[in-house]
Amino acid sequence: MRGHRGAAFNFAVAGMVDGPGSLIFVKLLLDTNPHASTLNVRYQSGDTALLHVLKHHEGCSWSHKGYFMPLVDLLLAHGADKGLHNNHGQTVLHKLASSPTYNEPVCPDLLEALIPFVDINQADANGWTALHFMARNLRQIKASRLLVSRGADPSVINKKGNTPLHEAVGGRLIGRRMEDGSLEGPALSEKIQAQDEIISILQAGASMDQPNMAGKTPAQLLADKRAQWEKGRE
């Protein structure tokens, strides 16, 4: 019976994670059935409620922090297991790092709260660590620096032979969503500055001359990316 309740809880969280109403609704569900096992029942993908919520992280905007952080705190307070991973080997850090956080940086407080409970260098089924995901999003300078300072290894290679440095030199700086709904694209200088900062963080433990499985080094990929930017692409 408890497994059925957990599945129902996950279904409810999946449908309610996108707005302030989710906090009240999830709290009501937990007050009705406060067992930790309910929170840690897995989706078919192996995701738990916490893993599912984290992949919807949208940065540190005040409107989002007003319900997202309390929602995460609520799940943790009721016994959500921070150390679990899904069927693809992705931990809470993978989910946070690969969330669609383009307009805003990842909340450092949330990152700090999760790091102690997982292997920061755990690779998923494709060999990606959280740092691989974080480095390819050029808005995540502070988050990448924080991961490295806590022991994330910039030299780990994924199944394509890419280190996080390979991902960073091929990374993107997505435009910011404005209040009127329009998307403001970054200037070339802003993209270069952000990329240079992440590269400087990762070069402490990885080489610009290390080829991947396709024979491409970060230095070569960087030259290709800058040429695209100069032509106004992306």
Describe this structure in words.
- This protein is mainly alpha-helical.
- It is 49% helix and 2% strand.
- It is built from 13 helices and two strands.
- It has helices at residues 2-16, 21-32, 36-39, 49-54, 62-65, 68-77, 92-97, 108-114, 130-136, 141-149, 164-169, 188-202, 218-230; strands at 176-177, 183-184.
- The chain has a two-stranded antiparallel ribbon with strand order 1-2.
- Strand 1 (176-177) and strand 2 (183-184) form a beta hairpin.
- Helix 1 (2-16) runs antiparallel to helix 2 (21-32) and helix 2 packs parallel to helix 6.
- The model has no long low-confidence stretch (mean pLDDT 84).
Main attributes of the structure:
234 residues, mainly alpha, 2 strands, ANK repeat, repeat, Ankyrin_rpt-contain_sf, Ankyrin_rpt
Task: Draw up the topology in text.
Layout: H1 2-16, H2 21-32, H3 36-39, H4 49-54, H5 62-65, H6 68-77, H7 92-97, H8 108-114, H9 130-136, H10 141-149, H11 164-169, E1 176-177, E2 183-184, H12 188-202, H13 218-230
Antiparallel strand pairs: 1-2
Helix pairs in contact: 1-2, 2-6, 9-10, 10-12
- Average pLDDT over all residues: 84
Overall 3D form: globular
Helices and strands, in N-to-C order? HHHHHHHHHHHEEHH
Strand order of the largest sheet: 1-2
Largest beta-sheet characterization = 2 strands, antiparallel
What's the gyration radius in Å?
Answer: 19 Å
Strand content is under 5%
Spans of 5+ residues with little confidence (pLDDT < 50)? Answer: none
Helices, by number, come to 13
Cα distance, first to last residue?
A: 51 Å
Helical percentage = 40-55%
Number of strands: 2
What's the assembly state of these chains? single chain
- SS class: mainly alpha
